[in-house]
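Record filed here:
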Amino acid sequence: MVLRPRVSAVIPTAGRPTLVVRAAKSALEQTMRDLEVVVVLDGPDPETLTRLRSLVDPRLRVIELPDRAGPGAARNAGVRAARGSWIALLDDDDEWLPGKLEAQLEAARGSAVSRPVVATRVRARSGRGEDPVWPLRLPDPGEPFSEYLFSRRTPFWGETLVHTSTLLVPRDLLLDLPFREDLAKHEDLDWLVKALVRPDVGLEFVAGAEPLAIWSVDSGRARSSRRPDWRTGLAWLQSVRPFVTERAFSAFLLTWIAADAARERSLPAIWRIPVAAFRHGRPRGFHLLLFLGIWLVPVGLRERLGRLRPPRGGA
């Protein structure tokens, strides 16, 4: 066993033995060998534990939490147990391509900040045929991170993205700023918007258009992040107002939270969301149009339109 590996992969999991074994294998098959893989079982899970023991590799460690605590708590437990100076996060239903960590460490060496957060493009695998590569565009120089992430410029899916399963982060940053453990969803966004306003932290993307991870976007798989709950989303957004710009605040309201409200068919949201956007944010006309489309265009048609290819050079 490597006593002090350079990178610790942290994979939280609960009740998905086949998927987490696939994820752990993709981490163990990295071209960068100086790593450990820490799988955190979020509560007792005998079947998953048995399946993981079939991976005979001294770099694999499994931690069992005594009770179900949620993704934020499971990630935090993995970070505390990790031995590496870098943490690479991986969700249990996603995968890495073999050169991911090596390319990220090279990008980190060239960063101008002391604590870079390094991301990569992903291939979004849905099982519906063509698997697009996201994000379609990277942040512009000087663009506030919250605006890059929330203030979309097009109606196309995947225009901007910083996916948790691509992140390589200094361990000391995750110890200074752990994931919130009381959030059922948005805990990854919460961490990103708070981390990336720090003066010694910056976002780096691995250069090139090739994806280095596979994001499983199977719409049939249950995920807490997919449960529509617009009031909880609004409460979370209000809690991070100091960390996001006014434009990002209103954009998230008029698109992300509005989409949840429309799925719930919550009529009060039709007026509450735009009122909050104007009161605390700076709405763009484009996002107001998207808000109207979310309520007026059927969900199935919106999803088909969102999956269309953007015009060349348009994103």
User: Anything to note?
Assistant: The chain has two domains: 7-216, 228-306. The chain is about 40% helix and 15% strand. The chain has a mean pLDDT of 91.
